[in-house]
Design goal:
Shape of chain B: globular
Radius of gyration of chain B: 22 Å
CATH class of the largest domain in chain B: Alpha Beta
Structural class of chain B: alpha/beta
Number of strands of chain A: 14
CATH superfamily of the largest domain in chain B: HUPs
Radius of gyration of chain A: 25 Å
Oligomer: heterodimer
Bound molecules: flavin-adenine dinucleotide
Helix content of chain B: 25-40%
């Protein structure tokens, strides 16, 4: 067994055989790159992840962050891992060379992130937020702001944060109260409290650049009156020295997971000496944040993917090593040899579920990132719009389906381990705890579902949805030509038709007085949509894998079942492609075949959840 | 300081190795290849010497099939300056002597103050090539090196080397062949800017004919086989400790025949 983080063979399959990302290199934007370089990047990322990041994951969990005298310290081992990460230039991998980055395609960023996050999600929170906030400065900052902040953030010398949440303003960002008052010199005095701020304070870097959402005195209520400010922990004074900017850390949360990531309650301007620098224009805060949303949400989906990935690898290894009970056919014979649990059908079922779902999330997330690259590499506005459409509609699914199903994979990993999985001695319980947050922050999964139903499917008379229907239709048409894929194509086509039916149903409901139904069923709808989106990816992969497998059978003259079985034992590539086809078959028949029931549940329109008087839930 | 680093690409230690059907070699399909770990120490040490003397060159020399370029590029991404790749059916699977012959011939056109070899390659474990290379070039060699000090005039080298139970310090004139042992250093990682630059660094590809040599193998490998599977252990239970000890001693003597 190779590394226990990511099945690198599968990652490469998605990149080179499914998406064929080498084609991107034909575009001017990516002409500097080649497959050889991509391979080197994956290789280097894996090495760093395995050798430097993963070994600090347990300490991150057990030691966690500490708040002492108003200063937060990260687990000690994080320092050198972070330094190596920055030295390698990883902090700005997808950023254009014009801004000090390497300019790699986003799909490579996501592939490397999967490796890094599966090694240590807590640690990766720091650079993850940094690249996000630096991008804001890149897009909206003045030249001076870029030189002052962005440059140091893209090297990792300084970190960044996103400060949205307040006690009364969680999902409802528009309710925030942090205040900004314009000063005569054009800067702003910031005052107010933020909570749950990831990387809000720490000692990895000497300075931290907060992106703070606040309301300028007199601005309209709600999201329309929000502006965004650069608020450094230490600001430059007139003489160019870094001085304290009156940002104080009141508390760090004690959490279920990601203990190594500091989650801070921050107070701005306690001494009335906190200065913020407006980013972009006044009252444009939400619009600016929206531009960052796709990237940020995709990154959170990657957390679900990464934890699922490493959880699956660990569970698989354990299942091959743990002996328990005899094989089912010799169950009654006490002298029968004990077998590794991977030989028990129920364990295999769990592993197969984990395998197909993890590979499905991987393909979907890489595909979303690839869509972004296709936008940048597009030759025509139509091509660009097409991929922008795919990306926009898939993002809430990447985030919510990725984190929810990723979490379930981590949960199954514990189940595969039995009692040992529940114990700290094995790492899988940490994976599950660390993974959970991904369904909550960056817009809860409930909010993602509302985004999908309320904004994305109705956008431009359903244009985005129609393009997905067309794309999947084309795949079905070509896959149908291959009779061997019948058991995948049929359940997929049926599930897709159910999705179309439910979407129409929502369309009708939304123009009647029964508009509550789509809102009530937004999350089950997102789940169904995710099933179909992932089914789409796995069918696509099956088409490729089946072709390769047949070639290998042909080359080896394996024309009988025995000879094929023989080849699968001795030939790694054949075994891999067989596994790919199996993932698609399993997913189609175990998950996609539930689509009819899921569709029926949604279209029942059953309303007890909203109609029930609160008194009837229970007395609490 | 000019260093020539001899580098071999080998299967990753974590790859599961299978012998092919006719026993003539291993199944190569799906294997992941890496730089021989000992050669990574060499690359790192060569880079450090160049950095220390603020001048010089690090040349990476590798023999093997096309895929070897990956290993060379990785070394270039770590910071080496250029590569020489000898790729020829006749030598790709050569024995240590053929390898040493080839390295010696290829080194003829390269300027160096020092030649690094890994103490051994983790695939075939011969640990002979470096020594033979030094003999063929008629220059000194220092094996199993864990520390290197080069004099300011670049004329002598002082090395610490592993010996049974301790260290030995050896001095030699330069140029010489040094074989790198674990403990020499912590190799750096290839960085992204390094990977970008590596693409533009030259790699010279050479065939056996270019070097004007005919291979003179001393060794024929006849057959590869996997080690036999380990037998399950024996358990002695339900006895008094003295009795267990007695039984174990007996078993070790009469069954395992180890005492
Ligand atoms: C570890 C951690 C790190 C975080 N990092 C950051 C950070 O770096 N920066 C930052 O700004 N914030 C951060 N957050 C905050 C996070 O984004 C919020 O917790 C999240 O947005 C939800 O807000 P809330 O906790 O107030 O929950 P609430 O908004 O109170 O939601 C509670 C429940 O109600 C549902 N709900 C709420 N409103 C609606 C609605 N209109 N329709 C349907 N359902 C609804 C939600 O889906 C959820 O299930 C972090 C939180 C945690 C725990």
């Amino acid at each position: 067994m190779a590394n226990l983080l990511v099945d690198e063979r599968d990652a490469k399959f998605v990149l080179y055989e499914q998406l064929n990302i080498e084609e991107l290199c034909e575009a001017e934007t990516y002409s500097e790159f080649s497959r050889e370089m991509f391979d080197m990047v994956l290789e280097a990322a894996q090495k760093l992840a395995e050798k430097e990041l993963a070994p600090t994951n347990v300490e991150g969990d057990t030691v966690g962050v500490k708040l002492e005298n108003g200063n937060v310290s990260v687990p000690p081992s994080f320092h050198s891992a972070y330094q190596k990460y920055c030295e390698g230039g990883w902090a700005a991998l997808p950023i254009s060379p014009d801004h000090g980055g390497q300019g790699f395609p986003n799909v490579m960023y996501i592939a490397t992130m999967e490796l890094f996050v599966s090694a240590n999600q807590s640690l990766m929170m720091y650079p993850g937020l940094t690249i996000g906030s630096a991008r804001l400065v890149q897009l909206y900052g003045s030249e001076e702001q870029q030189r002052m902040y962005m440059d140091k953030m893209y090297t990792g010398e300084w970190c960044g944060t996103m400060c949205l949440t307040e006690p009364q303003a969680g999902s409802d960002v528009g309710a925030l109260r942090t205040k900004a008052v314009k000063r005569p010199d054009g800067t702003y005095s910031i005052s107010g409290g933020k909570i749950f701020i990831s990387a809000g304070d720490h000692d990895l870097t000497e300075n931290i650049i907060h992106m703070v959402l606040a309301r300028i005195e007199g601005a309209p209520a709600g999201t329309k009156g929000i502006s965004i400010f650069i608020v450094p922990k230490f600001r430059y004074d007139d003489a160019g020295n870094l001085v304290d900017n009156d940002v104080s850390t009141m508390a760090v949360e004690k959490k279920m997971g990601i203990h190594g990531s500091s989650t801070c309650a921050l107070n701005f301007g306690e001494k009335d000496n906190c200065i913020g620098y407006l980013l972009g224009e006044e009252n444009q805060g939400m619009k600016i944040m929206f531009n960052m949303m796709n990237e940020a949400r995709l990154s959170v989906g990657v957390q679900g993917l990464a934890q699922a990935s490493t959880a699956y690898m660990h569970a698989l290894k354990y299942a091959k090593e743990r002996f328990q009970g005899p094989e089912i056919s010799t169950m009654k014979d006490p002298t029968a040899p004990k077998v590794p649990i991977i030989q028990h059908p129920d364990v295999r079922r769990m592993l197969m579920w984990m395998k197909s779902v993890t590979e499905g999330i991987r393909a979907l997330l890489y595909y979303a990132a690839y869509c972004e690259d296709r936008i940048h590499a597009a030759k025509t506005p139509e091509e660009s719009a097409k991929y922008q459409g795919f990306l926009d509609i898939l993002i809430p699914i990447c985030k919510a389906w990725g984190s929810d199903m990723g979490f379930r994979v981590t949960e199954l990993a514990i189940q595969v381990h039995g009692g040992y999985g529940f114990c700290r001695e094995y790492p899988v319980e940490q994976f599950m705890r660390d993974c959970k947050i991904a369904s909550i922050y960056e817009g809860t999964n409930g909010i993602q579902a509302l985004d999908l139903v309320g904004r994305k499917i109705g956008y431009k008379q359903g244009l985005l949805f129609k393009s997905i229907v067309a794309e999947t239709g084309a795949l079905i048409k070509s896959a149908k030509k291959n009779y061997r894929l019948k058991d995948i194509v049929e359940p997929f086509e049926t599930a897709r038709n159910h999705l179309i039916e439910v979407t129409r149903y929502f369309g009708l409901k939304s123009i009647t007085e029964d508009f509550m139904t789509p809102i009530l069923y937004a999350s089950p709808y997102l789940e169904l949509f995710g099933d179909v989106a992932v089914g789409f990816m796995l069918l696509w992969q099956a088409v490729v894998a089946d072709r390769r497998l047949e070639e290998l059978y042909g080359d080896a003259k394996a024309d009988t079942e025995e000879k094929k079985a023989e080849l699968l034992k001795s030939n790694r590539s054949a075994a891999f492609y067989r596994g790919k086809v199996a993932s698609a078959e399993f997913f189609a028949n175990t998950i996609l075949s539930l689509a009819s029931g899921k569709a029926r549940a949604i279209m029942s329109g059953e309303r007890s959840a909203i109609d029930l008087p609160e008194e009837s839930f229970a007395l609490v | 300081m000019k260093s020539l680093v001899c580098l071999k690409q080998v299967p990753d230690t974590e790859t599961q190795i299978k012998v092919n059907a006719d026993g003539s070699g291993i199944v190569t399909d799906g294997i992941k290849y890496v730089i021989n770990p000992y050669d990574e120490f060499s690359v790192e040490e060569a880079l450090k010497l160049k950095e220390k003397f603020k001048a010089g060159e690090v040349v990476v020399l590798s023999i093997g099939p096309d895929r070897c370029v990956e290993a060379i590029r990785t070394a270039l991404a770590m910071g080496a300056d250029r590569g020489v790749h000898v790729c020829d059916e006749a030598v790709n699977n050569g024995d240590p002597f053929v390898m040493a012959q080839t390295l010696a011939a290829a080194s003829g056109n390269i300027e160096y103050d020092i030649i690094f070899c890994g103490h051994r390659a983790i695939d075939d474990d011969f640990a002979e090539t470096g020594a033979m290379l030094a003999e063929l070039l008629k220059i000194p060699q220092i094996t199993l090196v864990t520390k290197i000090e080069v004099s300011a005039d670049k004329k002598t080298i002082t090395c610490e080397r592993d010996i049974e139970g301790g260290k030995e310090t050896v001095e030699s004139p330069l140029p010489c062949v040094v074989s790198s042992q674990k403990g020499l250093n912590e190799p750096r990682y290839a960085s992204l800017p390094g990977i970008m630059k590596a693409k533009k660094k030259p790699v010279d590809k050479k065939t056996f004919a270019d070097l004007g040599l005919t291979p003179d193998a001393k060794l024929v490998s006849k057959n590869f086989s996997m080690p036999g599977s380990r037998q399950a252990g024996q358990k002695f239970e339900g006895m008094e400790p003295q009795e267990v000890a007695k039984t174990v001693v007996q078993a070790l003597r009469s069954e395992a025949k180890v005492i």
